[in-house]
Amino acid sequence: MTLPTFPLETTSTAQVALRAEVRAFLSDALVDLPARERARSWVGFDADFSAELGKRGWLGMTLPKAYGGHGRDAVDRHIVVEELLAAGAPVAAHWIADRQSAPLILRHGTEDQRRTILPRIAAGTCFFGIGMSEASSGSDLASVRTKAERTADGFVLNGTKLWTTYGHKAHYMIVFCRTGKSEDRHGGFSQVLVDMSLPGITVSPVLDIAGEHHFNEVSFDNVVLPPDALLGEEGGGWAQVMSELAFERSGPDRFLSSYVLVEDLLRCLKRASAGGETTDLGRMIARLMVLRQMSLSVAGRLARGEQPVLAAAIVKDLGALFEQDVPEIARRVLRDDAADAEYAAVFQRILLAAPSFSLRGGTREILRGIIARGLGLR
Amino acid sequence: MDDSTYSMVIESAEKLFSDRGGKDFDPALWAAVEEAGFPLALLSEDRGGYGFCAREAFAPVRVAAAHGVALPLGETLVANWALGEAGLDPAEGPAALAWEGKAAVPYGRFLKTVVLLRETEAGLAVFVLHPRGDDWRTARNYAGEARDVLTLAAPAQPDAHIACAPVVLRATLAMLRAVQIAGATDAVAAMCMSYCNEREQFGRPLSRLQAIQHQLAVLATQGCAATVAADMAVAAFDTALAQADPFVLTAAAAKVRAAEAATTVSSIAHQVHGAIGFSEEYPLHRLTCRLWSWRDEDGSEAQWARHLADWAESLQSGGQLWPALTACDLREAT
Ligand SMILES: Cc1cc2nc3c(=O)[nH]c(=O)nc-3n(C[C@H](O)[C@H](O)[C@H](O)COP(=O)(O)OP(=O)(O)OC[C@H]3O[C@@H](n4cnc5c(N)ncnc54)[C@H](O)[C@@H]3O)c2cc1C
Asked: Which residues form the Acyl-CoA dehydrogenase/oxidase C-terminal domain (chain B) (predicted)?
């Protein structure tokens, strides 16, 4: 075989039961949440809901029990995440912490960092922000200017991060910054763990095209960090941030962002028994069924301790295309008079979120570059 | 998962089919295929087969497709399986399922046995026919594979019945095309990769140009999707009779998705190859023309897409798609 392989995963009886348990909880917990709110997908924020998930053992699932986690594997986590996203649950509060900050801290953090932070992430009470992008540094992350300078008793952090999702709610931000000079373009970077309550941090909202506030500009003005703010190795930030991105890229959040519209579209189609041309609807379902298998396969490989960077990039590229096609397909299959006010609100929310699906977490072009490298073309 | 049988099957299929691609039925190669036992792989040992799981049994079909081999291998494999389910002995020689009255039979004139299917009140009737040369009106698909029309009428009395819904057999044949598409897209990807690494323009290999890299990345994502689509349908085939609904839906999705991938993959492959890929002498068209044929054979992309759409719309009112989708998940063998 020339192409990368995606070994199929099968589901055990215990996993089927886990899915059913999560589903039953959600149908109860979200009974009053209208579709237009669910349509926010993983940008919907509800701290109480996150804490409830924590109580039920559905956060920090793959973390060892010693750190408040549940010692389960990536496939179990994948199942829970799929159910949350399919239901349009408001998961934003814990999302970044659970998805990428916790595994990063587990792998690179000190024992002290693990003990103080990981149990709170698993409880759904500690939220994180991703401090990678800056105004002049997006895809080209190696051009970041934010700097942490060593002092006698720690670091002083200066610079401004941009597009920081839920920076205004975060307890911590993991900031990718310069800590030294290096001949190597990818050298001299580190990640620092920044307590957002420290003096000198200003979080300013940035609104998106729908006028919504989720991302922010976060500036650091001589923020004094303790020595143990360093996360991982000094100068090893580049490799760390790349493996963090691999976690960020592999999950069901990369193809289910517009799923609430799929269900609402079907609701309207059934109500109207539209009898229109639904070939595109069938095509959409086929793509979704295959994407689910591909993403589950990546989870299976993560569970076996592999780092499927190429496979994850492939799923994210196909997933973003799918998520962005959903509103376009909906336009083609639903007659105007079959839509109601709720559907219109769901549609608008997803239409206006769609451009971000192929930007956040690495743009389409960057992913295709990663895939090309994986294929040995560069 | 124990992969030893699977790897062994792949290895012997590779050995058999490498460099044996072509347009016309190859009797010598068919003899070797029978020798290897591939057409009996799905039958249990007491029926003279090997009792392979579907993943192992369909592996040679994919390898044959990757090499552009002109044989009714998958067709015979499925025909023998259907005969077994009908309580009949496996066919002698190359065989295929055919729906009564339906136009094209793959490799018709080269078949020893046609397993003709008729939908009746009493169920799915099976007729085992042995047509002669003049029972066929010959025709070919875009790739030149024989797709002949049977002019022989079935007798009044069927040889047997199969206890399964007709759609299960239709879905099985659709799955077969998805498997072939998966094999061919992988081979097309290999051709594109090596061509772009070798061919130089502007003083460097095409593969150094970002526009080409991105085209090949898209080709790869589509090829992977086709492969996963075929794999999931094949895995569901193991329980196709016991759990018909999930199998049919999975196979429908596989056909639709693989067909969509076939379209993109063929188009990119011809684009990156330039004029040479458009020439008769260059082997690319053997694969791309098959992709264009297979995506429409045994139920077009549109037909199976509508099957999925109708299913989604028929879920009981208030019922959601999601639980129905997860109900199709592949279950661990118990
Ligand atoms: C909703 C949302 C939430 C986000 N949340 C966060 C967050 O929490 N934390 C954070 O750090 N960042 C976040 N980001 C930022 C995100 O990571 C960046 O948008 C992304 O990395 C791209 O950077 P950019 O926007 O500066 O675009 P650029 O890098 O300027 O790219 C602009 C265009 O040029 C293309 N391009 C760039 N380089 C190349 C190349 N080498 N080859 C070909 N094409 C190229 C890009 O693909 C893109 O199409 C978020 C973004 C969005 C939209």
From this structure: 176-289
pLDDT at B123: 87
Contacts of A86 in chain B (CB under 8 A): 322
d(CA B295, CA B178): 8
Q: What is the pLDDT of residues B62-76, one digit of tens each?
A: 999 999 999 999 999
CATH number of B3-162: 1.10.540.10
For ligand 1, is residue A215 a contact (CB within 6 Å)?
A: yes
Please give the residue of chain A at the shortest CA–CA distance from B195: A377
Domain A130-236 has CATH 3.40.630.30: no
Where in chain A do CATH 2.40.110.10 domains reside? 130-236
Residues 6+ apart with CB under 8 A from B165: B124, B244
Decide: A62 in ligand 1 pocket, CB within 6 A: no
Work out the angle at residue B182's Cα, subtended by the Cα atoms of residues B181 and B186, and round it to the nearest 5 degrees: 110
Mean pLDDT of B231-242: 96
- Looking at CATH, the fold of the domain delimited by B166-333 is given as Butyryl-CoA Dehydrogenase, subunit A; domain 3 (1.20.140)
Nearest-CA neighbor of A48 among A106, A159, A125, A108?
A125
Q: Which residues of chain B lie closer than 8 angstroms to A288, CB-CB?
A: 325
> What is the ipTM for the molecules in this complex?
0.96
Please write the tens of the pLDDT for every residue from A99-138.
Answer: 999 999 999 999 999 999 999 999 999 999 999 999 999 9
Spacing, Cα B4 to ligand 1 middle (Å): 44
Query: What is the architecture of the domain spanning A240-374?
Result: Up-down Bundle (1.20)
Which fold, A13-127?
Butyryl-Coa Dehydrogenase, subunit A; domain 1 (1.10.540)
Banded pLDDT at B162 (limits 50, 70, 90): very high
Q: Is A302 in the pocket of ligand 1 (CB under 6 A)?
A: no
- Mutate one of B3, B308, B310 to test the A interface: name it (highest A CB count within 10 A): B308
- B187/A2 CB distance under 8 A: yes
Residue from A193, A288, A301 nearest A246 by CA:
A301
d(CA A274, CA A85): 27
- Which positions of chain A have pLDDT values less than 50? none
Backbone angles phi, psi at A94, to 5 degrees: -95, -5
Q: Pick A286 or B92 by higher pLDDT.
A: A286
Contact B228 A294 (CB under 8 A): yes
Rounded distance, CA A121 to CA A93, Å? 10
Distance in Å, alpha carbon of B330 to nearest chain A alpha carbon: 5
Chain B residue closest to A267 (CA)?
B318
* Nearest beta carbon to residue A377 from set B207, B232, B306: B207
Strand partners, A157: A148, A223
Distance A199 CA to ligand 1 centre (A): 29
Do A282 and B328 make contact, defined as CB atoms within 8 angstroms?
A: no
**How many angstroms does the Cα of residue A148 sit away from the middle of ligand 1?**
23
